[in-house]
TrEMBL record:
Main location: membrane
Domain annotation Spore germination protein N-terminal: ranges: 22-197
Cellular component GO terms, alphabetical: membrane
UniProt name for this protein: Ger(X)C family spore germination protein
Annotated source species: Cohnella terricola
InterPro entries per record: GerAC_N, Spore_GerAC-like, Spore_GerAC-like_C, Spore_GerAC_C_sf
Keywords, alphabetical: Germination, Lipoprotein, Membrane, Palmitate, Signal
Family the entry assigns: Belongs to the GerABKC lipoprotein family.
């Protein structure tokens, strides 16, 4: 009986406890979802984007299209840590960093060098390495107040969920912080960071224009510092070298009246590298599958495939030349030489900081296979 009494008393005490004493109610915390880092006049300016998760949860009680308020905090300091810490003075509630989904660096930070930035920011115990990272030429505050269609929250924008758009239109590969840090640390691999901007002339809500976020190009690095920026158009040929490519449209032919549109998928990209007469040379081989997206004129299948092959080959060469103009390796050719012939790569780099030139690409072989003509069984060939 005594043991039973002690057991009942202990059970009663457990029922009276209100839970973990150190726990916080979800509504009593500020949740940072994105961080922006700028540098001006010897000081870091940081921005944090806050969301109330009660307003963005997907359940039957949340009204789709209801305006979701976005709060943006701004800090200033001589270091990133000091700048972020200065926001605490007015935050009213504890800020939780475990839900940060994206980090955006201004162009001035990229020019200064991002080593201090990521060393400081990623030391926060709550911040993860696998968050999306961008550079931008835009004002960071303007970036952080952008919403998605139907007034959905920033969690539904390209900045936080870029894979949704990339699956339908594959151009610039979205990258996460751990991947970019790895690229910067590898001597033979060029570091690439997608750039994000604001498009103001595409969407409207009835007669009112609505700006939306867009990935408009990429920043390239030499070491820790930005070396160049190229637009999406200038980098159009690089998409065919991406093994992650899911879907990208090309017009046939690329010049003159359009007769068809093909969607290219499943790239098989291979580069052979060597050094001849003291210069790096590369042979590129690429295979792609295609589906017919639109047919405006009855033409042979092989004509469509050949035109697509020419289009892809021309785009790759044009992007390569654009990179040469800015002394950056947009096709990551140098990495293949570094991996396969490290001694030859070191010998070249000892004499010249940039080993590529207009004759570096010795050959480009492209093969496109049209797999199907889509749901509509119109005439082809």
């Amino acid at each position: 009986m005594i043991r039973l009494a002690y057991s009942l008393f202990g059970l009663l005490l457990l029922l009276l406890l209100s839970g973990c004493w150190n726990s916080k109610d979800i509504q009593n915390m500020d949740y940072a979802t994105a961080v922006g880092i700028d540098y001006l006049n010897g000081q870091y300016i940081t921005y944090i984007q806050l969301l109330n998760f009660a307003n963005v949860g997907r359940n039957e009680n949340v009204e789709i299209g209801k305006n979701v308020p976005i709060w943006v905090g701004k800090g200033v300091g001589r270091t990133i840590s000091e700048s972020l810490t200065s926001i605490y003075a007015t935050s009213q509630m504890r800020i939780f960093w475990g839900h940060v989904k994206a980090v955006v660096f201004s162009e001035s930070v990229l020019k200064k060098g991002i080593e201090d930035a990521y060393n400081s920011f990623y030391r926060f115990g709550e911040v993860r390495y696998n968050i999306y990272v961008y550079g931008t030429k835009e004002n960071l505050h303007d970036i952080f107040i952008q919403k998605s269609v139907f007034n959905l929250s920033p969690l539904d924008t390209i900045m936080i969920s870029p894979e949704e758009t990339y699956s339908q239109r594959s151009f610039i590969v979205p990258l996460k912080g751990n991947r970019i840090i790895a690229q910067i640390s590898e001597p033979g691999e060029p570091a690439i960071m997608p750039s994000i901007s604001i498009a103001k002339d595409v969407w409207s809500e009835e007669k009112k224009g609505k700006s939306m976020l867009k990935i408009n190009g990429a920043f390239f690095f030499k070491g820790q510092k930005m070396a160049a920026w190229l637009s999406e158009q200038e980098l159009s040929g690089t998409r065919w070298t991406q093994r992650q490519l899911r879907r990208s449209l090309v017009q046939i032919p690329s010049g003159g009246p359009v007769v068809a549109n093909l969607v290219l998928i499943n790239p098989q990209y291979d580069v052979k590298s060597d050094v001849k007469d003291g210069k790096a040379v590369f042979d590129i081989r690429l295979k792609l599958d295609a589906t017919l997206d639109e047919l405006l004129k009855n033409v042979p299948i092989r004509f469509l495939e050949e035109q697509a092959e020419n289009h892809v080959r021309d785009e790759i060469m044009e992007s390569f030349r654009m990179g040469l103009n800015k002394q950056v390796d947009v096709l990551k050719l140098e990495e293949t030489l570094y991996r396969n012939h490290p001694r030859k790569w070191h010998a070249l780099r000892d004499n010249q900081p940039f080993i590529l030139n207009g004759a570096s690409i010795r050959s480009i072989t492209v093969k496109v296979h049209l797999r199907n003509t889509g749901k509509y069984k119109g005439r082809v060939g």
